[in-house]
Design brief:
The chain is α+β, with helices and mostly antiparallel strands. It has twelve helices and 18 strands. Strands 3, 4, 5, 6, 7, 8, 16, 17 and 18 form a nine-stranded mixed sheet that branches. Helix 10 crosses helix 12. The protein binds (2S)-amino(hydroxy)ethanoic acid and manganese (II) ion (2 copies).
Amino acid sequence: MTTIFSDIEGNSSSAPAIDYTALGSDIMERVETLALHTEQTGIMTRTYLTAAHRGAASQIAVWMREAGMTVRCDASGNVIGRYEGTDPSSAILMTGSHFDTVRNGGKYDGPLGILLPIGCIAGWSRQGRRFPFPIEVVAFCEEEGVRFKAPLLGSRAIAGTFDNRVLDNVDEDGVTMREAMLAEGLDPAQLPCAAMSKGSIAAYLEVHIEQGPVLLEENRALGVVTAISGSSRFMLELKGVAGHAGTVPMTLRHDAAMACAEVALYIEQRCSASPGLVGTVGQFNVPDGAGNVIPGRAVMSIDIRAGADALRSDAVDDIQAKITHICTRRGIHANINKTYEAVSVSCADWLQQRLTDSMQRNGCTPRSLPSGAGHDGMIIATIAPIAMLFVRCGNGGISHNPGETMSAEDAALASRVFVDFVENFSVPTTQ
Ligand code: HGY
Ligand code: MN
Ligand code: MN
């Protein structure tokens, strides 16, 4: 491992300045180390409360302690490192991101926002530098919502908005979230203790890969997020009549899969009609299907997002009406279950300005942009002002894909901006 410090001659305080080039490389090395904690060797899959998830949590805790932080784990499984300030009564500066992943995803979505602050704090710790405010780095336990179809669990636990109904959600093996938590030594009854009060967090700053092509296409390393798009997610179950593939005439069929396909194509057509609106069918299944059987049942996911909430809700209304129309015509029964909804969340103007100032002080031409992806910040925003710093993705900006990538140089520059932001941060007097 490279050292992230160098004793630069002539440094007045004789404290070692942070070597950002080394820090950028160190962050990339640690992303690789963390990626070894996966459910499928060679594929990046780390879902909530699996052995891989537990291994990653332990590794993150080790790095937090090595950086001079105290570490606690809350009832949801968040791993929280605290770097004490000189005024323990002060509101905290919170940062962090999630350490769970989608299936066969990328290595940087989440971990960058955990490992970068840890590396910067290690630098301050080495210098013996403290700030008036404590800094807490939160490794959020569950943002993607893959295993139990309930996203943003860790941030909801901290925001005090954890919905206990999801404890009965089951994974593909029929294990409930409650059972999985208890098996990991987590007590759901203690979840309310994880909540942090409004005012206890002065600000939340998340560093995250852009997960899109904008910064890459404009040849920019960093961007300041203006808002996080809201989203509406559903699971749609369609029930028709199973039948013999060879004997039932097309005009007499109630084919659940074809009905799903018609709904899916309508979603694509409806969302393509409005700029800024996106619709995705990420899961499309014929449970227990067979090639020579007309599908009697089909299940699909629906994910609708837009920066403007009205744009999203209008599309959801149209899609639900279309589902009714298609199913009536086809003699299909529909069960639609909303699994998640979040309104668009704006980043605090004053924090955007401070982040922009830090970028300018470090030679970056400021660029603001919205986030089409959801993030823990949208939940933390219910109890604190938030900001996000986007870091360029390579490989066309691809994400939620093993091709997801970024550079050590951009990690180094993002670290410089993060350090500048924190070193110029002060808790607003209104706190
Ligand atoms: O789906 C999202 O937007 C995020 O990556 N969980
Ligand atoms: Mn993410
Ligand atoms: Mn993600």
